[in-house]
Amino acid sequence: MSGRPASVSPWFGQPRGLTVLFLTNMWEQFSYFGMRALLVYYMTKQLLIAQGTASLIYGTYTACAYFTPIVGGVIADRLLGKRRAIIVGASVMAAGHFMMGFESLLYLALATIALGNGLFLPSLPSQINDLYAEDDPRRGWAYNIYYLGINIGGFLAPLLCGTLGEVFGWHIGFAAAGLGMLAGLLIYLWGQRYLPAEQGRTRGAPPVERGRLGLPTILVLAAVAMSVTVFRGAYEQAGNTVALWADTGVDRVLGAWAVPMTWFQSLNPLLVMAMTPVLLAGWKRRADVGRDTSPAVRMATGALIVAGAYLMLCVVEAFSGGKAHWLWLVLFFAIYTFGELFILPTGLGLFARLAPPGFGATTVAAWYLTIFAGSLSAGLVGTLWSRMPHTAYFALLATLAIIAAILLRLIDPWVRRAEMREPSYPHRKAR
C-alpha cells in the first residue's frame, strides 16, 4: 500500500514526500561538500598544519563519514526510528559545521559532523520506498531523482561556500555550510506531513527471511572490495592533493580575474549531472543489441579511464614549465568523472544484487566499509604529495588505478558466476 494519501496531489508527477526528501538531501549535501571543499585549504593556510598531516586528517574524516552510517543505521532501526534519527543527525551536523568557526575545535567539529552523518545518511533514503505502492512504475525512477539532489548540492557548495571562505574568511564559508544543513532540517520538519507513517521498530534481532551467505559470494565481494579500496586510494585525491595542485600548480587567471580554486570542486558533480543520462542511454542501446558488458569489466574500464586522467596530469606537470593552464584541470575532471560513472555506481549495484536473502543490509553495509577503507588509504597516499616530485606522484595515482583495473578484470569470471547463482535485490543509492 502506498504511503502517500490518495487525497494529496503529487508534485512534478511524484509523491510530495519525494520532493521533501530531495530538498533535504540536497541541502545536506551542500553542507557536506561545502565544508569539504574548504577543509584542506583551511588546515594548510589558516592553521598552518603540514601538508602530509592535513591530507591524513582529510582522509580520516572522509573515511569516518562512510563508517558511522553502519552503526547509525542500526541505531535508527532499533532505537530512534528514521525520523528521529534524521532530526538528531541533522542537528548534530549543523552544530559541527558551526564549531568549525573555532580553530581550537577542529577535531571535535569533524568528529561531531561524522557522528551526525551516521544517523542521517542511512535514514533519509530508506523512506523513499514507503512513498510508493509496490507496483507503482514511478518507483524505479525515484532514486534517480533523489540522487540528483546529491549532485546539485555538491555542485553549488564549492561555488558558494568556497567563494565565501576564500574571499571573506574560512569561518564564513563554514558558517554557510552550517546554514545549509539547517535549511535541510527545516525543510524536513515542515514536510513531515507528506511522509509515510513510520512502521513500529523492532528491538533485538529483526525478523528476516532465512538465507545463507555462501562462501563463494563472500569471496567475490571481498575481491571486489579490495579492488575498489585500491582504486579509491587514487580516486579520493580529487578533493585532497589535486585540490592542492589547483592552488599552486595551475594558472587560474581568466582575463583580469582569477578563478577561485574551490570552484573546480564543482566540476565533478556538474559533469555527473551532464554525463549520466548520456551514458545510461548508451548502455541501454548496447544492452538492447546484446552487447552489454559485465559489471567487473565495466568497473575495470572505469578504473583505466581514471588512470588516464592522472597520467594526463603527469604529462602536463612535466611539460608545463611552471603553472599549467586551468583548462587542463577542467579536462582532468571530465575524464575523471567519466571513469567514476563506470566504476562506483556499478560497484554499489553489484553489492546489492549479490546480497542473499536475509543479508541485504549487511551486504550493502560492506560497501560503506569499502569506502571507509579506501578513504583511509587515500589519506595515507596523500601524505606522499610533499615527499616526491609531482610528476612521480601523479604517475603513482595512475598506477594504483591500473592495479585496480587489473584486479577487477581478473575476478570477472568469478563475478559472472556469482551473478548467475544469486537473485537480484533492489537497493538504494548512497553518497
From TrEMBL:
Subcellular localization(s) per the UniProt record: Cell membrane; Membrane
SUPFAM superfamilies: MFS general substrate transporter (SSF103473)
UniProt membrane topology term: Multi-pass membrane protein
Annotated Pfam families: PTR2
Statement: the UniProt record of this protein carries the keyword Glycosyltransferase: no
CDD domains: MFS_DtpA_like
Record-linked PROSITE patterns: MFS, PTR2_1, PTR2_2
All copies of domain Major facilitator superfamily (MFS) profile, residue ranges: 17-416
Keyword annotations from UniProtKB, A to Z: Cell membrane, Membrane, Peptide transport, Protein transport, Transmembrane, Transmembrane helix, Transport
Family to which the UniProt record says this protein belongs: Belongs to the major facilitator superfamily. Proton-dependent oligopeptide transporter (POT/PTR) (TC 2.A.17) family.
UniProt-listed NCBIfam families: yjdL_sub1_fam
Name of the protein in question: Peptide MFS transporter
Taxonomy of the source species: Bacteria, Pseudomonadati, Pseudomonadota, Alphaproteobacteria, Caulobacterales
